[in-house]
Specification:
Number of helices: 4
Order of helices and strands: EHHEEHHEE
CATH class: Alpha Beta
InterPro entries: Anti-sigma-factor_SerPK, HATPase_C_sf, HATPase_dom
Structural class: alpha+beta
CATH superfamily: Histidine kinase-like ATPase, C-terminal domain
Keywords: ATP-binding, Kinase, Nucleotide-binding, Serine/threonine-protein kinase, Transferase
Bound molecules: adenosine-5'-triphosphate, magnesium ion
Pfam family, one: HATPase_c
Protein name: ATP-binding protein
GO molecular function, one term: ATP binding
Length: about 130
């Protein structure tokens, strides 16, 4: 299990470093490891860009894989259905966006309200 507060770009890289360490002990392929990292980068950058600038990343083992949870107390995602239908095109940053981050994971759930956002993502090695 790892946790990391995210308030800066440097914190995001600390989270990536810790998740890599966690994944190393599990039978993930190099490709799947990259998928998890790129997905986390997108979601964590959104905390800095849209989610009030501060959040937390937690990553833990689940049956046959890992789960990461990224939470913030920002204003929430206004058009979450459109985004998840793939009808929203992101236009800045890494350019993969939330929908791309979802495609890289096996499961991705978004809980969002005007009090904040929580994104729960799972990747399995089996
Ligand atoms: N944590 C968040 N809190 C509030 N709004 C968010 C959050 N994450 C995403 N959003 C909203 O969802 C939209 C889509 O996010 P997405 O990451 O797909 O694209 P983007 O961040 O605008 O562009 P890019 O990721 O390419 O820089 C954002 O523009 C923003 O309005
Ligand atoms: Mg984004």
């Amino acid at each position: 299990m790892m946790t990391q507060i995210v308030q800066s770009e440097e914190d995001i890289w600390d989270a990536v470093y810790k998740i890599k360490y966690l994944l190393k002990g599990l039978p993930f392929s190099e490709k799947d490891t990259q998928c998890v990292i790129v997905s986390l980068l997108e979601i964590a950058h959104n905390v800095l860009d849209h989610g009030g600038g501060m959040g937390t990343v937690i990553c833990k083992r689940v049956d046959g894989g890992i789960c990461f949870i990224v939470s913030d107390q920002g204003p929430g995602i206004p058009c979450v259905d459109t985004i998840l239908k793939g009808q929203y095109t992101s236009h800045s940053g890494l350019g993969l966006g939330l929908n791309g981050a979802k495609r890289l994971m096996d499961e991705l759930k978004i809980e969002t309200s005007t009090k904040g956002t929580r994104i729960i993502a799972i990747k399995r090695y089996v």
